[in-house]
């Protein structure tokens, strides 16, 4: 059959497919629409040319990433930055469309029971690739993070976002070939059975059943910052610290083991700035003799570190410096080139550098009775690092028995960014079999069980404080233990599939031309 060139109808369907992928994430959280999106994507590519397939993939990506990354428009105050980010990430989806079209012209197309799995490997390899490049990658929008309410999240402890996302793609392509592709009855039946098995078999994998090694009473506070257009009495940099001090005073009691506060609890370095240090001392007084985890900055010459520190007995006892600063948010690549072109770029006045230590802090506890827990090692990925599996799997491998995600969502207004991040924290709780807390300045703060269920959560832009009892775990899931192998396995499998398609393509093209000539003879 002759390949079909670009058509407006398919472009519209491609955008709709991308929007369906977006709708599987917060705020809509309609996880099943991701499967619908991939069914449409597979249908759109049928009999398309290779250039058209690349463009359809680009349209799917824009339909997905433009609404998903709308928070970038608010944070940067720039439509250009928002569209540029969405367009850059969409190129990876365009590559998927191109490779899928190559696969449809290979011998895999004649194996409908195998083709969806190969297509899924290609997608996941591209997800991994965009999580690594450019500038350290962008893991936001990995398919698995949109599946925290679906049966497929049960696969997370076995294979992280790769296995969960791969199952989504496989289901979608099976649906696409079962509904849209002309097939014999047994192929349609096989596709339907495969989708049912992939969707519901994971429910047999239990979550949250590992034995606890103890419990911890954890207090947290969300203090609210001023909105950009809001008038502030005094220093804006100190306002969030003042508000957190007030919220800590509002805690019901002091019967807790550790107090956790958000990223950017103080935008000034509490180790050298007297005003912020005084406010932290007030918080210490309100918290009694309990250790505190909080976010601050360290400025050295013309750069800075984003630190999450342990404060105890009036001193900073330990620190973790963010390993994965966000490009164009926390540091500016190509500074000398971009500042003359983009006025907003100058807002990043001091570049953040990356730390080189694992994202863990050892927190001493004042109690010694009860569970007999005298200290706890906490994984503390900062903000966007919750999307970086390398950071978290390393922390779990270092023995962290609890996850705390400090974040500062103040730059993202009323967008869904914080809810999307809270879903990512829920996914990590399931993936690593750990209770987790996300603590924000203004977004969604809350506590999560190791099975992904939400104990409690705040509303965005709401001052709040609470005390929760969380379990501690020492088990190591397959996802944590084998993560480097998972990454390399996906890249190797994806590379093999792409190479196979590229090698077969000219051969099958010549074969098709020979058949056509013989038919005309």
Describe this structure in words.
The mean pLDDT is 89. This protein has 2 domains: 8-205 and 483-520, no CATH class; 214-475, Nitrilase/N-carbamoyl-D-aminoacid amidohydrolase (4-Layer Sandwich), CATH 3.60.110.10. Strands 1, 2, 3, 4, 5, 6 and 13 form a 7-stranded mixed beta sheet that branches. The protein has a 6-stranded mixed beta sheet with strand order 7-8-9-10-11-12. The protein is α/β, with parallel strands linked by helices. It has 15 helices and 13 strands.
In short:
45% of the residues lie in helices and 15% in strands. The chain contains 15 helices and 13 strands.
CATH topology of the largest domain: Nitrilase/N-carbamoyl-D-aminoacid amidohydrolase
Overall geometry: globular
Q: Element order, helices and strands?
A: HHHHHHHHEHEHEEEHEEEHEHEEEEHH
Distance between the termini: 19 Å
Largest sheet: 7 strands, mixed
Whole-number tally of structural domains: 2
Count the DSSP helices. Answer: 15
User: What's the number of extended β-strand segments?
Assistant: 13
Quickly give the structural class. Answer: alpha/beta
Question: How would you describe this structure in keywords?
Answer:
alpha/beta; 15 helices; 7-stranded mixed β-sheet; 2 domains; Nitrilase/N-carbamoyl-D-aminoacid amidohydrolase; 521 residues; 6-stranded mixed β-sheet
């Amino acid at each position: 059959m002759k390949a079909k060139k670009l058509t407006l109808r398919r472009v519209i369907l491609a955008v709709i497919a991308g929007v369906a992928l977006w709708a599987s994430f917060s705020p809509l959280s309609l996880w099943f629409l991701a499967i619908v999106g991939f069914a449409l994507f597979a249908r759109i590519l049928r009999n398309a040319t290779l250039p058209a397939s690349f463009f359809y993939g680009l349209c799917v990506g824009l339909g997905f990433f433009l609404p998903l990354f709308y928070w970038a428009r608010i944070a940067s105050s720039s439509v250009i930055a928002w569209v540029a980010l969405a367009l850059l990430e969409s190129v990876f989806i365009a590559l998927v469309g191109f490779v899928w079209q190559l696969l449809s012209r290979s011998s895999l197309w004649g194996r409908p029971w195998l083709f969806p799995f190969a297509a899924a490997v290609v997608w996941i390899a591209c997800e991994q690739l965009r999580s690594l490049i450019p500038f350290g990658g962008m893991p936001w929008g990995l398919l698995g993070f949109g599946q925290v309410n679906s049966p497929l999240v049960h696969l997370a402890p076995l294979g992280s976002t790769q296995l969960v996302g791969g199952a989504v793609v496989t289901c979608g392509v099976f649906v696409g070939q079962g509904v849209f592709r002309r097939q014999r009855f047994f192929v349609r039946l096989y596709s339907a059975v495969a989708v049912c098995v992939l969707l519901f078999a994971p429910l047999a994998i239990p979550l949250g059943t590992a034995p606890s090694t103890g419990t911890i009473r954890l207090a947290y506070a969300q203090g609210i910052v001023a909105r950009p257009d809001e008038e502030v009495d005094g220093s804006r940099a100190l306002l969030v610290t003042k508000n957190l001090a007030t919220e800590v005073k509002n805690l019901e009691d002091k019967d807790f083991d550790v107090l956790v506060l958000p990223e950017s609890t103080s935008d000034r370095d509490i180790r050298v700035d007297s005003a912020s240090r005084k406010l932290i001392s007030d918080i210490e007084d309100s918290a009694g003799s309990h250790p505190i985890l909080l976010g601050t900055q360290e400025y050295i010459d013309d750069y800075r570190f984003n630190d999450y520190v342990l404060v105890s007995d009036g001193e900073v006892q330990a620190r973790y410096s963010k390993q994965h600063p966000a490009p164009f948010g926390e540091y500016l690549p190509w500074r000398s080139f971009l500042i003359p072109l983009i006025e907003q770029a100058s807002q990043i006045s001091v570049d953040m550098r990356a730390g080189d230590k694992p994202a863990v802090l050892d927190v001493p506890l004042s109690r010694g009775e009860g569970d007999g827990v005298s200290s706890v090692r906490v994984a503390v990925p900062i903000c966007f690092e919750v999307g970086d599996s390398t950071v978290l799997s390393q922390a779990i491998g270092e023995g962290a028995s609890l996850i705390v995600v400090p974040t500062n969502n103040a730059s993202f207004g009323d967008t869904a960014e914080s809810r999307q991040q809270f879903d990512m924290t829920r996914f990590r709780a399931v993936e690593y079999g750990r209770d987790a807390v996300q603590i924000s300045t203004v977004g969604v703060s809350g506590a999560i069980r190791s099975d992904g269920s939400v104990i409690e959560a705040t509303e965005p832009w709401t001052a709040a404080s609470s005390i929760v009892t969380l379990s501690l775990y020492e088990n190591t899931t397959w996802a944590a233990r084998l993560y480097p192998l998972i990454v390399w396995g996906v890249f190797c499998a994806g590379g093999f599939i792409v190479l196979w398609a590229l090698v077969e393509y000219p051969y099958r093209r010549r074969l098709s031309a020979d058949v056509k000539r013989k038919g005309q003879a």
